[in-house]
């Protein structure tokens, strides 16, 4: 089993204590983390929306991004990338 550093160790301990109070039995931190991971996996969409700030890509946003791209073509279409970078030896 791998060791994992936690930046929220105190929060995990508080969470563990609350679970003990609510359930009336002790649960190990390992078991608690396993349950959190399983829950997050089953509720991936909600987890992603709650915990990550990545913007949602909609067809409208994709269209807008593509509309702002510039097609320049190739300056040297007859040469490969390697030839352009390293010369034609």
Kindly describe this structure.
With 89 residues, this protein is an all-alpha fold. It has one domain. 58% of the residues lie in helices and 0% in strands. It contains five helices and no strands. The radius of gyration is 25 Å and the shape is elongated.
List how many beta strands DSSP finds: 0
Give the domain tally. Answer: 1
So how many helices? 5
Strand content: under 5%
Task: Name the shape in a single word.
Answer: elongated
Mean pLDDT over the residues: 87
Radius of gyration: 25 Å
Give the SSE string. Answer: HHHHH
Kindly, what is the distance between the CA atoms of the first and last residues, rounded to a whole number of angstroms? 51 Å
Decide which structural class fits the backbone. Answer: mainly alpha
Low-confidence stretches: none
Describe the main β-sheet briefly: none
Helical proportion? 55-70%
